[in-house]
Amino acid sequence: MIQKTLTSIVVTAGDNQSCPVGPFPTPYAQGLTVRVTDQYGQGVIGVVVRFTPSNAGAGGSFSSTVSGAFVNATTDQFGNATTPIFYSNGTAGTWVGDIRTTGAEVIVTSWTATNGVVPPAPTVITNIILVSGGNQVVTPDSLYGNPLVFQCLNSNGVGVNQQPARVDPVGSTPQGWRFYYTGLNYWTGITDGDGYIRLQMAAGSGLGDVVLECKPYSGFTPATQATVFVRAAPESIGIVSGDNQQAALNTLFTLPLKVMVLDGAGQPCIGFSVVWTLPPTSRAGGTFPGAVTTATTYTEGAGGTPGLATSPPITSNGFSGYWYTEARVGPSPGHVVSFQLNNLTPQTITEINLIVGSGQAAEVGTNYTTNIQVVVTDQNDQPIPNVSVTFENPAAAPTGRWAGSLTYVGTTNSGGTVTAPVLTATGLSGTWVGHARATSKPSVEVAYSMQNTPAAVVPAPATLTLLSGGNQLAFEGQQFTNPVTVKVLDQQGRAFPNGTVTFSIPTGFAHFPAGQTANALTDANGVAVSPLFTGGTSHGVWNMTCTCAPATPLVVPERTADQTAAVQLQYISGGGQNTAINTPFAAPLVVRALNAKGEPIDGVVVTFTAPASGPSCTFNGSITEDKITGG
Fold first, then answer.
1. Of the candidates 487, 462, 485, the residue with the CA atom closest to the CA atom of residue 549
2. Pick from 127, 389, 455, 469: most CB atoms within 10 A?
3. 3.40.50.2000, 2.60.40.10, 2.60.120.460, 3.20.20.70: which CATH number matches 127-230?
4. What is the pLDDT of residues 191-230, one digit of tens each?
5. How far, in Å, are 42, 47, 212, 307, 450 from residue 230 at the CA level?
């Protein structure tokens, strides 16, 4: 985007004067003239420039009655601002005054004056500066709007008076291009009293660029160049973007305005000024920066979009309604295009509506899937930005919370929407209703309905049941016949698959192949089977513990026996006898004690017991008799 900006302010007359010291006020010979130009070297009209003399020691004043007084001057159509004469304050010496533009864009320069005699200045040109007039664009057979101005300076930075200089084209010039007063495409002459060269230029029938170089007449350095252009005249201007925008009162429109300028062949016109004109400030309209209603920008060239011109930013004024602005290229009437813009009536918070988020369900303790989003609109059903919205959920369960809070306050974006954060279902299960309200106008609200569903029960082991493998007997070093088989059920009595069951044997009584414990996974039916286990050196009844947390452990009794201990009695003789009452039987009863290997064992106490009632017998007057095997 190319915008017209203040780029240079140069003193063109009145600098480096001297006057007798004299008493205050002693006048200098002439006032000051400065020229304010933009980035294209064109003069800028309507710029207020302030001239402030020094008043500390040697100094001056623009008043003949008050020492140190400043003066303001406004630039004319050529960008020149001229002051009245100024006065010495009566103190001898050289002093410097301040010159600067006022307003939003401030550029600064200074001037020098001497109260007293000024020594002669050096006359050799040591520097040449381009003051203004470069980068101008004209159409064929027309004058350039501003002269080309160079200043030749001496080693003190002061313009040299009456010194010969020349301005020559670098390369060829378009057909008919010339300096207006000489009719030639080069110039030779002498500088004015302040070292300036001012040249009016004219274009012929040819198109192209003109590069001009200013240098001392008799040398090649120093040299300074300027470029001007001859372009085909604009024949059309069209809207690119920015039309049909709207903005609240006293608010910046989102987009600048853009136009494309083309010549008769449909080619982009580069470097031409486009004048933007807004309506008067007394009705619906807007302003450019600096509270002005007109602005000039230039069509872009290399490094941009050729032929594109962009307006400065536009701010709506305090009147509502539709309005039009013009973009014009070329001399009046030129080529014009109009944009329509709209200053919106002040917005009143009228409605809050749900966009998404209501009607969801989530398990207690989990997050709802979609965040609640609402939009705030005005009386014209237009979204309102920067509105504070309070989301509030019921204090009693069931309810929902945002990071532990029952409320959330957010602000609408440029589209009038605001989105609450992630919401968590808390408390009890059930349906509940929350509200989103305009914080500054709680009567404007919308309700949202949510449902907390019961938290899902995660299956877990609840009970273990023995299916087989309990109450077995094995001897030391002997494998028990069957493994222990258990079934695991969950809280709802269903088989619990893929659960780890740990089988544990107390040390000494038995062991699994890998030690005292073994793990097994339950199958699809909740059944887990232990490895086979082998009797140990400790004898007696013991308990295998089966665990599958958090279910209560299951205890399975087993027995390990000593192979050398008596495990059975073998009948030998004495049974089947008959005798009269109270008469001894003819033969004793004989049994044999055997171990697990079937071998007789001596020293085993065997107790013989007769029935306590009915037909019976006695052993030496008793119904029981203990005998020891062997011997």
1. 462
2. 389
3. 2.60.40.10
4. 998 999 999 999 999 999 999 999 998 878 889 999 999 8
5. 15, 28, 14, 15, 72
